Amino acid sequence: MMSCSCGHDRTEKTCIEIVPIFNTLTYDEMMEVARITVARSYKKGEMVYMAGDRGEKLFVIHKGKVKISRLSHTGKEQVIRILGPGDFMGELSLFVHGPLTDNAEVLEDTTVCIIDGEKLKNLMAKYPTIAFKVLEELSSRLERAENLIEHLGVHDVETRIVEMLLDLANDEGEVVLNMSKRDLASHIGMSQETLSRKLSYFQDMGWIKLIGHRRIVILDEENLRSLI
C-alpha cells in the first residue's frame, strides 16, 4: 500500500478528481482528501474486502473493474453491481456501525484509493457538498435496487433479458457487456445456462446477433419488445 500521489502527476487525473462526489471541490480541497488517502493495487481475482470485514473506509476505483456481490446461506452468489473508474464502494460502513455485508472482487488488474472513513466524515462536515454527493449516489443505487427487485418478482425470464438488452443498448442497438454472462445471469436472477439458452433462441429467431462473449447486436427490436 502506498500514499496517494494525488496532485503530483498532472498528466493523468487521480481517483480524487474522477470520482463524482469530489468533482465540485477546488484543487486545494481535493488535496485535503488526498492527504487521508492511500493507493493500493490488486490483481485479477483478489478481494478488496469481504463480507464480515471491518469497514469504516471509502474505496474509490482509480483504474480497473470490481464486482460487488453477496452470498446466500446456500453459497449462491448474487451480483449486485459492477464498478469501474470513478465509482466508489464501502460507503455504508461510514454511517452504519458494523461489518461489511458484501464482497468486492477484482475483475481485472485494479488500483483502488482507500480513504480513511473517520477523517472523511470530518471533511464532510467541513465541505457539505461531499455528503450531498454521497447521498445522491446512495439514492440512485437504492432506486436501481428497487427496480431490480421489481423485475425479479414480477417479470418472467424472457422479459428480464429483453429489458436488460434494451436498457444496455447504445443508439446503434449494440450491447457491450461489462461483466461475464455468468455474472450477468446472477445479476438478473437466473442461471447462466438459462441466459445462454434464451440468447441463442433470440439469435435463431433473427432478433439479435451474438458476437464473441461480450457483444450483442439487436437486429429486430420490435419483436423483442413484443415479449415484454
From TrEMBL:
<protein>
    <submittedName>
        <fullName>Transcriptional regulator, Crp/Fnr family</fullName>
    </submittedName>
</protein>
<dbReference type="GO" id="GO:0005829">
    <property type="term" value="C:cytosol"/>
</dbReference>
<keyword id="KW-0238">DNA-binding</keyword>
<dbReference type="Pfam" id="PF00027">
    <property type="entry name" value="cNMP_binding"/>
</dbReference>
<keyword id="KW-0804">Transcription</keyword>
<dbReference type="InterPro" id="IPR000595">
    <property type="entry name" value="cNMP-bd_dom"/>
</dbReference>
<dbReference type="InterPro" id="IPR036388">
    <property type="entry name" value="WH-like_DNA-bd_sf"/>
</dbReference>
<feature type="domain" description="Cyclic nucleotide-binding">
    <location>
        <begin position="21"/>
        <end position="141"/>
    </location>
</feature>
<dbReference type="InterPro" id="IPR018490">
    <property type="entry name" value="cNMP-bd_dom_sf"/>
</dbReference>
<dbReference type="Pfam" id="PF13545">
    <property type="entry name" value="HTH_Crp_2"/>
</dbReference>
<feature type="domain" description="HTH crp-type">
    <location>
        <begin position="155"/>
        <end position="222"/>
    </location>
</feature>
<keyword id="KW-0805">Transcription regulation</keyword>
<dbReference type="InterPro" id="IPR050397">
    <property type="entry name" value="Env_Response_Regulators"/>
</dbReference>
<dbReference type="GO" id="GO:0003677">
    <property type="term" value="F:DNA binding"/>
</dbReference>
<dbReference type="InterPro" id="IPR014710">
    <property type="entry name" value="RmlC-like_jellyroll"/>
</dbReference>
<dbReference type="InterPro" id="IPR012318">
    <property type="entry name" value="HTH_CRP"/>
</dbReference>
<dbReference type="InterPro" id="IPR036390">
    <property type="entry name" value="WH_DNA-bd_sf"/>
</dbReference>
<dbReference type="GO" id="GO:0003700">
    <property type="term" value="F:DNA-binding transcription factor activity"/>
</dbReference>
